[in-house]
Specification:
The protein is α/β, with parallel strands linked by helices. The protein has 2 domains: about 160 residues, Aspartate Aminotransferase, domain 1, CATH 3.90.1150.10; about 260 residues, Aspartate Aminotransferase, domain 2 (3-Layer(aba) Sandwich). Helices cover about 40% and strands about 15% of the residues. It has 14 helices and 15 strands. The strands form 3 sheets. The chain has a 7-stranded mixed beta sheet with strand order 4-10-9-8-7-5-6, with helices on both faces. A 4-stranded mixed beta sheet has the order 1-2-3-13. Strands 11-12-15-14 form a 4-stranded antiparallel beta sheet, with helices on one face. A hairpin with a 2-residue loop joins strand 1 and strand 2. The two termini are about 30 Å apart. It binds pyridoxal-5'-phosphate. The site of pyridoxal-5'-phosphate has 15 residues, from helix 5.
Length: about 425
Amino acid sequence: MSNTIQQYKDYVMTGFLKSVAPIVIDHAKDCTITDVNGREYLDCFAGISVVNAGHNNPQVIEAAKKQMDKLIHCQSYLYHAQPVGDLAEKIAHIAPRGLTKTFFGNGGAEAIEGAMKLARLYSGKHEFIALHASFHGRSWGTLSITGNQGRKKRGGPYAPGIAFAPVPYTYRSNWPKDPEECGRQCAKALEDVIRFSTAGDVAAFISEPVWGEGGIIVPPSNYFKEIKKVLDKHGILFICDEVQTGFARTGKMFAIEHFGVEPDILCTAKGIADGFPLSGYTTRPEIAAAYKPGDHLSTFGGNPVSCAAALANIEFMEKENLAARATETGNYAMAKLRALQKQNPLIGEVRGLGLMIGVELIKDEKLTPATAEAEAVRDALFRQGVLVGVGGVNGNVIRFQPPLIITKKQIDQAINAFAEALSEVNQPATV
Ligand SMILES: Cc1ncc(COP(=O)(O)O)c(C=O)c1O
């Protein structure tokens, strides 16, 4: 056994996972990961939707190296650091209208917690509404607004003042099949939650624009417009969690742009810096002004190297038009997966936006989740050298979220391997 694998067993906390994939990764480039034995893997999970511009993108690396030679850390809030200013200005230009001021942290959960704190300070209100099937992080505050028992178990009780509204998971809920009607009914359900499950002291509604960990659930096109009407009526802020969907993943720089509404606070992380640790939340100046001296800080937040990498990453995305590419390649992949669905009853639904694609596996016509099968498919793909994720509230959704630079040829390779994995899993066990 490799020394690294033994070191993990002896010295790294991994008890929160069923297993760690039995490879030691040596290096990665674009969509290919290579292990210490020289075996290559096609990465269709991008480090959980992080390396949107590809592994070790040369422009990102060059910007980071240049910055490393000059300054790694100075405390980016006590003093001014040029990459922080440059990146914040860039984000002000690409973020939804009016969102011009950013706080930078290190990871997604930190951004969400900061946004919640700021929403409370600005509104003077204290409660939150989140959604079923949502995921917002692993800190206590973000687990408190996460709508998934699988993630919350053994961590409660959670923060008070949080109510949950239903998510438009049309494949599994009893929502009307007509998407527009589903959108309207979800808004009505939100109205009921405000009325019956809160004290009328709601600071913010928080939602992902596409629910990632929940199973790549894409809302009806009118959903957020209907929701926003309710929020505006009750003076509730909209915090949009774009930690997973941001930075061209869904075919727009930010996924909320698909739905014709503007959030009050936009949270970002994962794809922001192509693998360098960084997160942010961006808002309107009057909301940002709710912070008063002493209210907030982060030691590593706004690290100059991460910020320089993020700026190069965003410029690469714009130059290469990665958002349009994600739409084109994503539609290509989904068409192929839907063709595969016709021959394969294990596939219940193929859904997604851009290169955020979920394939929900079912056992029968009652839509019984094929949870063990999903893990078996992922493992079979791994043996074939293709990395994918498994997620969803029932653990039965195969997640394709590759770097956005993936080629159609590589998509073909992944889907051929997926077809083989499905037939391997469908084989009756031999005794
Ligand atoms: C939508 C969403 N929000 C927040 C988080 C938490 O991000 P992090 O793991 O960087 O804290 C995640 C992580 O998967 C996420 O998908």
